[in-house]
Amino acid sequence: MGRKRKEYLESVLFTIPAVFLVCVVFYIPFLMGIYYSLTKWNGIAKEPVFIGLENYKTLISQSSGFITSLGFTIRYTILFMILANVLALAVAVALSKKFRGVSVIRSMFFIPYIMSMTIVGFIWKFIFSQGFAALYEKTSLEFLNWSWLGSGKLAFYSVVFVGVWQSLGFYIVLYIAGLQAVPTDVLEAATIDGAGNFKKFFMVTLPLLKPSMITCIFMSLTNSLKVFDIILALTKGGPGDATYSATMDIYREAFQRNNYGTGSAKAIVFFVIVLMITQLVMKLMNREEKAGVNK
Amino acid sequence: MSLRQKKKIKRMALVLVMLLIALVYVYPIFLMCINAVKPFGEVVTDVIKLPSKTEWGNFTYVMDKMQYGKLFLNTVEITVVGIAGIVVFSSLAAYILDRKNNRYTKIARVIITTPMLIPFQTIMISLLKVMTTIHFSGSKMGLGIQYWGFGIPMATFIFYNFMKTIPGEIDESAFIDGAGTFKTYGLVIFPLLKSVTATVIVIDVMWIWNDFLLPLLMVNGSNDTKTLVLSAYSFVGQFNTQWHYAMAAMVLAILPSVIIFVFLQKYIVEGVVAGAVKG
Q1: How many contacts does A have with B, using Cβ atoms within 8 A?
Q2: Disulfide-capable partner of A37 in A41, A63, A80, A264 (CB 3.0 to 4.6 Å)?
Q3: What ipTM describes this predicted complex?
């Protein structure tokens, strides 16, 4: 009995730092957030005033901007996921072959990923304004003269583009790792059976690539739902509210308008939506994977 | 033309095309670098042209203005504190969670790893309130310790998955030799975790070094606590018409990560892949 008791005490003692730290930064703020979402509080006053579900009513109303920002976030996420995965897979296929200098080219694609997203946003702000103007004078290509950050419609594509540019290298290396794990004898067997390159890729490589794909799709989903830094540096959410993401809206509501109560309500709703979307995508992908195994 | 030659030419064409795409891909970074060493007049007149002379003065001006040395050390301090705690507490917790199987460890595992699903922005408002109350905001040490909490869920998960590959007989033989649980972990198990520890360090250094929002909320008040990224952000905001200084500040802010990447790229890429696949 003594040894078992000691083991139990030890397991508590050695994990308690991790449990405690996680509680302090995640669970306690999360529970407080639920409470604050039911109050009117400017962050300065001593006592938040309890107002029930008033904040939640406010954020459903058009004027709060929350619905618009959610719409932007969803559109951003969809386009980001498609572009990041398709482009990364295409580049990875080309770079998974062995040739001299391939590692240098891979590194070139990876470099933006090691840079802070804030800096990346600023670099592209410079490119879109100064860089494009200068290139337009040289080449007079019409698209260089478009207002990439000034018009709402184009600004949406600009922020997606820059987001993809920053993290593409990450998805490329994941896909390369997956492609290199595809057994060559299977591909050879397909060649002997008379499959062309195109057929080989879609019928053999792609199905075997499913684990990498699931990782990449899931990573691109969670990362794009949380988009913040790049947009803040690139457009600050503008022009107008054209590129305001949900996370930026939470930030603005709490720390710029000092509506901590409404901000907390937005944060809670955002959390629920993110959780629902990620669970849904995970379920879909698990089913896909099982279906693939059964074939 | 033989089939072999045809194949070779095809391959060459592919290499050239990929090289060209890669060059276009990094061209914005190149533009930033050349404009960081131009005199102001040349930035205004022609962004694309190479500088007529290299103006290193931009860097010294910016370094002086943003107190680069101090901010660099701040960032190093925060990152080192953060990483040390994440590695120690996560590997220890993962070891216990894998080896001891009782009601408590089952619950603890769920408590520790679930927060991977909580986006930071959903808790940041009350987090600031909590950290202000316990005087953790406005302090480098306080920020470093917060990274422990934020890094532990993912790191524990990665360590936990790796722990299963270490056979239990190793613990038992250490136990027979008279080592307690903590000693076994410290002297026998931890040294076996080298590869996975490297993975955790790589992904967490990249994250903490480049993190923006948490430092913005916690340590943006004074230059004594600011990080490099924060300072570059406010610097570029201030100098948004004097692009040559802004560019110099940005180059200086990313220089440490680029230098480290050039030397350790193999480990960094491997670590990133391993972290994503296991995490």
Answers
A1: 251
A2: A264
A3: 0.89
